[in-house]
Design brief:
heterodimer, A: mainly beta, 11 strands, B: mainly beta, 7-stranded mixed sheet, 4-stranded antiparallel sheet, 0% helix
Chain lengths: 108, 111
Amino acid sequence: GIQVEQSPPDLILQEGANSTLRCNFSDSVNNLQWFHQNPWGQLINLFYIPSGTKQNGRLSATTVATERYSLLYISSSQTTDSGVYFCAVTVTGNQFYFGTGTSLTVIP
Amino acid sequence: DADVTQTPRNRITKTGKRIMLECSQTKGHDRMYWYRQDPGLGLRLIYYSFDVKDINKGEISDGYSVSRQAQAKFSLSLESAIPNQTALYFCATKGRSGGYTFGSGTRLTVV
């Protein structure tokens, strides 16, 4: 199956700092999403972004499908941004492949 | 109300017991999925269904069964629970286009 790698695996930020999370995938995909899992375990969809760039408040994402990577930008980080960020892709639409996530801790 | 609702939110059960996790959705999506999450392993697919008559195994279906009672309902059963099925379980839906929508998760502990 397709390999989905995320980096860095762990990240600690001072509140107000910016960060970039990366997702590399090993094959062409027809769907890519970024999720945030909060400390209570809830999985929240951030972006549906198989290609291009999207922005939502302090978050933005870019996927370069031809080069098989996606980036998630977090600006002016807040403590509520803490949690695990997952990148997930589908190839044929039948199965979603998740990366192992980036664990983000934002300290005040 | 949430688009995808999972019940129960938390459950502790004993080894050997049968347990059912339920998922219902109001998005009108045909496709429904069950995933489990274990520390360090991300999410892995257990079963998926494209409609009431179409159910497929995912990568880790052993020890699980599912039932698609209606377009809006997709249940996951553990016929005889074992401790290594302790995990966080997610139900998800998807329409013909666009992304996936996840439920809030069910935290299952098998003792």
